[in-house]
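Appendix B. Chain record.
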Amino acid sequence: MKTIDQLQPKEVWTIFNELTKIPRPSKKEHKAVDFAFNFGKKLGLETFKDEVGNVIIRKPATKGMEKKAGIILESHLDMVPQKTPDSKHNFETDPIKTRIVGDLVYATDTTLGADNGLGVAMAMAVLQSKTMQHGPIEALFTVDEETGMTGARALKPGKLKGEILINLDSETEGILYVGCAGGLDGEAVFSYTTEKVPAGYVFKKVAVGGLIGGHSGMDIVLYRANANKILSRMLLPMMRDFNVRLVRISGGSIRNAIPRDAHAVIAVPKKFERKVSMLISQVRKDVTEKYKYTDKDLKITVSPVKEKAPAIEKSVALNVVRAIYSIPNGVARMSDTVAGFVETSNNMAIVEQGPKTIKIHSLMRSSADAAKYDLAENMRAVVELAGGKCTFSGGYSGWQLDMNSPILKVAKDIYKKLYKKEPEVTGIHAGLECGILGAIYPHWDMISFGPTIYSPHSPDERVEIESVGKCWKYLVELLKNAPVSKRG
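Structure tokens predicted for this chain:
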């Protein structure tokens, strides 16, 4: 059976194959940091780490290319740790198991880490190449991009010398990105006490699963089902109308992934069992119809629970469910200037219950700061009306679309020359590090591209093999034809 290190371009896939063996979930990617640091040192290149773990490797220009503009190749070392409900994979210890299906590479029951492992692999392949022609190169490998862009935020001015940033974290070959959305994390907190469930109740577990999920920015426009929203759609009427008590609730696990699974343990009055069952059946029918094209494997299951635990305080439980049901989710506004481009969205991502509090986490994105903060106020209003407290953190501005970028003109010309067609030029509804890095290094000219990756941030993540070859060939030519430095 063919393995991924046998694929072409071999120099890229061999490095990516090594990365799949290195556990690197966000905030716990120290082994990947060591790998990148040692990679540069073994090549005899100037290599250093900053205070948070970002790795920077410098490679001198090839002979005759010394006057070219310095280029920074940028990618992140961490990956989103998502797996199927039945998977026993431990992202902190286990390697990713890859498989080839036709022209695609998948992982087995987990995210693949092509986001952004293939960007890392391409940058490393440039560093180790002895035949490529290029000007001065700096490779910037950042940490914790997926859960807060910690590495990009912590980068200090003056660490890098280049003039042009090529971000290798985009996920559709043939598209050049010159703008991205900013982000803001929202957290709602509800404090609660518990109450003993009276006699005459039966305990059940209601679960929503089988959803596709996906990247909460790029896939939000596909209007896929949100497991937390579906769960609240069932819970709200049964709690309001049939005195059902909420014992436990949980949904989603990653702020930047559309939640695929959610469940609740409930206590149902025996006299209303039939009506509650009918209500669940009706919701199952309704959502199955609604999402038959986007989430065809959607499942709602009900099973008995032996445990007789206390219920969450009745009024608080109802308000929590009302908040989950009402917090904005999905596309809030499309762009007025770029066709098909999402301006503003929210992913109502995680519901987690602790011993005394229930927290609801959302990730808001927008290319317009005002719209992002307006959406945040919408969430705050819902939460406060429901008796909770709402806070926001991690806000960052987007990368404003720049259709007049000098490197964009070069990049478009080279793509057309190579592939006999014009590349698409647009922004991306995701939080590329370009927005943050551009604020630290405002003189940089920036562009982003990458191979085609489907369903990133989900266990269905897969990469198109042919697109990796096209991206690599394109990067080689772009570096060879980079403009002369403006510094003289």
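Further analysis of this model is presented in Appendix C.
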